[in-house]
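[recover] target loaded
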């Protein structure tokens, strides 16, 4: 079947900021999430520690519009697909890791693929509203957001309550506005929640191990913060 002139034209439209075609961006957007509940991790390395591998807990698995399934992790100022990991020390993805059986693998587990594909078909949403909420998952790995003023003279660490997937494929870490809290515990979907990435003071996401070190003023953790400030 030949493509229509309209679809051909859309293929040639390029986003000025990303350099990618609009169609490619649409194909890459996330349409469904599945929480990771079995402790699977992502492995990465960086140029400063060539003989080491580092691990992060996977938050969830995401199904893209083109059918690809990838593990997602909170990483610096966003939540990203594991194979896209990069950092100020030239960090790069090395694979997924199952600590229970000490096994490294490179593709999403088949049970997660089936779960996501089945759920996406069952809960298919037909809407032109880009900001409509498709899903909201509770944070299960202790993610914290770093809030700070421009010169980082004051830093606040706050727990991420949930992760909200919008119809346009964007995923937001949701924080509680303490002035709007009316009941506890604060659950996904609560009206007091707001998107971290849209907050003026939001800087980074960290998993709980690093967040706890920052709270304890661990020298290595504070040095890492300083490096990120310098890079920004």
């Amino acid at each position: 079947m030949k493509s229509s002139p309209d679809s051909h034209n859309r293929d040639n439209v390029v986003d000025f900021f990303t350099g990618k075609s609009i169609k490619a961006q649409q194909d890459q957007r996330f349409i469904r999430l599945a929480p990771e509940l079995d402790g699977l991790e992502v492995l990465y390395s960086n140029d400063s520690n060539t003989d080491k591998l580092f691990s992060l807990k996977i938050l969830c698995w995401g199904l893209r519009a083109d059918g690809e399934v990838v593990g997602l992790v909170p990483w610096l100022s966003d939540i990203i697909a594991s194979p896209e990991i990069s950092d100020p020390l030239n960090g790069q993805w090395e694979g997924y890791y199952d600590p229970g059986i000490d096994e490294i693998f490179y593709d999403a587990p088949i049970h997660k693929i089936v779960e996501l594909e089945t759920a996406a078909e069952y809960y298919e949403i037909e809407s032109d509203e880009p900001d409509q909420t498709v899903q909201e998952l509770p944070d299960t790995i202790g993610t914290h957001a770093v809030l700070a003023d421009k010169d980082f003279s004051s830093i606040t660490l706050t727990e991420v309550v949930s992760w909200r997937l919008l119809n346009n494929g964007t995923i937001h870490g949701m924080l509680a506005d303490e002035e709007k809290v009316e009941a506890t515990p604060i659950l996904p979907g609560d009206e007091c929640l707001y998107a971290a990435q849209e907050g003026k003071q939001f800087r980074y996401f960290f998993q709980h191990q690093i967040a706890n070190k920052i709270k304890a003023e661990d020298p290595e953790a504070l040095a890492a913060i300083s490096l990120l400030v310098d890079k920004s």
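[recover] notes: Helices lie at 5-12, 22-28, 110-122, 208-215, 219-231.
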